[in-house]
């Protein structure tokens, strides 16, 4: 079965408000093995809501409409839904009485427009709202000759979430054949999205029952595999089969199969081998240190380091000779190498990383353009240096340089 989620509210069509309820509803649906295939945001116009509900009912088995159940003139979900279904609306006296009692218990007079919240679409079952004045509604109906499940839920998250969990989910479990969904994610560093797809597509295309998604962001590729089966064991077996084959194909790039971020994997490998790390950062300005220290317990393996933006500090904190900087320039393979070696020695670490480059948007030349970065990794026996030319804005260059540095450490530790 599939589902469509409709969020009602003109405010969500502006830059100032976001629909976050749909993420929660999607997670709940996925627990039942129901795929959310459409999400729609509609403004507070009755015609648009009518059309949106009709379209959703025409292509989805389950439709969840969120918002537009309040007392004001622009709360039109009840009326629009009734029109879309071709049925009427009636005022529920029990709901009306409960509304009056709610206001009376607070020693408040109920405004006349609140009576609209007692209006129920013909054929709907009322879903009481213990957190607010807008009850939800559940409809098990027929549209276009097919059975449809349609629910109207309040917009405020503190009202929607308990109603979804306590009232909608039990009804869905009793109504639909519940299936189980398994998910696995492979995370890779410094691999172009096109190459990841070219190498993995011949594998995952053989599995029509497994949904595969590729996401790319700032030097990382994520491959998501999702499968729904009658049992969790069947779903997991299918997901592990396809992801296992892809893992073999892309093994050198994969740093995580359990969702862990790259910095956590690096720290885990360091800790397993009883090694420590120190960093000397120029163009990344401490971004690498920040990523490492965001992991709880990182102090077991990450000793610290320095942000050596000024040339004088490259000498003071990492022991880089002034003559070396004068001869080769601060952005050079030689200085990156000296930074890694120097910070390792100064901090007494097993490994040292040195990063120097031109993040931009200014400072580049024909010989050393914006995006040029040198990253060095030193241990007690050798120092390796990579030269990279990253494209994009300042933040992207710094982020890519940080990921490249982390991945260099990961790769080196895998061979230890």
Task: Determine the structural class based on helices, strands and strand pairing.
Answer: alpha/beta
How large is the radius of gyration? 29 Å
Q: Report on the biggest sheet.
A: 6 strands, mixed
In helices, the fraction of residues equals 25-40%
Order of SSEs, N→C?
Answer: EHEHEHEHEEEEHEHEEHEHEHEHHHEEEH
The span between the termini is 49 Å
Strand order of the largest sheet: 2-1-3-8-7-6
Question: In what range is the share of β-strand residues?
Answer: 25-35%
For this structure, the CATH topology of the largest domain is Molybdenum Cofactor Biosythetic Enzyme, Chain A
Instruction: Say how many strands there are.
Output: 17
Subunit organisation of the chains: single chain
- How many domains comprise the coordinates? 3
Mean pLDDT: 95
The CATH superfamily label of the largest domain reads MoaB/Mog-like domain
Q: What is the molecular shape?
A: elongated
What is the CATH class of the largest domain? Alpha Beta
């Amino acid at each position: 079965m599939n589902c469509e989620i409709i969020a009602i509210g003109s405010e969500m069509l502006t830059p100032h408000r976001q629909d976050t309820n749909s993420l929660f509803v999607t997670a709940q649906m996925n627990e039942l093995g129901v795929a959310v295939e459409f999400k729609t945001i509609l403004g507070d116009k009755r015609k648009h809501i009518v059309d949106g509900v009709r379209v959703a009912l025409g292509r989805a088995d389950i439709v969840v409409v969120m918002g537009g159940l309040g007392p004001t003139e622009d709360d039109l979900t009840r009326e629009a839904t009734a029109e879309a279904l071709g049925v009427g609306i009636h005022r529920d006296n029990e709901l009306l009485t409960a509304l009056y009692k709610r206001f009376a218990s607070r020693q408040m007079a109920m405004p006349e427009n609140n009576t609209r919240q007692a209006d129920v679409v013909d054929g709907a079952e009322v879903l009481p709202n213990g957190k607010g004045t807008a009850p939800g509604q559940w409809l098990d109906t027929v549209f276009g000759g097919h059975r449809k499940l349609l629910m109207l839920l309040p917009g405020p998250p503190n009202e929607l979430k308990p109603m979804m969990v306590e009232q909608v989910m039990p009804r869905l479990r009793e109504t639909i054949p519940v299936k189980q969904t398994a998910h696995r994610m492979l995370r890779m560093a410094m691999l172009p999205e096109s190459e990841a797809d070219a190498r993995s597509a011949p594998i995952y295309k053989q599995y029509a029952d497994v949904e595969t998604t590729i996401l790319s962001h700032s030097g990382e590729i994520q491959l998501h595999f999702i499968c729904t089966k009658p049992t969790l064991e069947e779903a997991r077996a299918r997901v592990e089969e396809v992801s296992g084959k892809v893992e073999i194909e892309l093994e050198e790039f994969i740093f995580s199969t359990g969702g862990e971020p790259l910095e956590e994997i690096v720290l885990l490998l360091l800790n397993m081998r009883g090694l420590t790390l120190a960093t000397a950062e120029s163009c990344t300005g401490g971004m690498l240190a920040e990523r490492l220290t965001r992991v709880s317990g990182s102090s077991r393996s990450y000793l610290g380091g320095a942000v050596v933006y000024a040339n004088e500090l490259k000498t003071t904190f990492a022991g880089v000779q002034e003559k070396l900087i004068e001869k080769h320039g601060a952005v050079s393979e030689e200085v990156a190498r000296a930074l890694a070696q120097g910070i390792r020695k100064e901090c007494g670490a097993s490994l040292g990383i040195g990063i120097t480059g031109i993040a931009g948007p200014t400072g580049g030349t024909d010989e050393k353009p914006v995006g040029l970065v040198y990253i060095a990794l030193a241990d007690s026996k050798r120092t390796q240096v990579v030269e990279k030319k990253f494209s994009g804005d300042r933040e992207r260059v710094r982020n890519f340089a940080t990921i490249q540095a982390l991945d260099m450490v990961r790769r080196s530790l895998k061979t230890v």
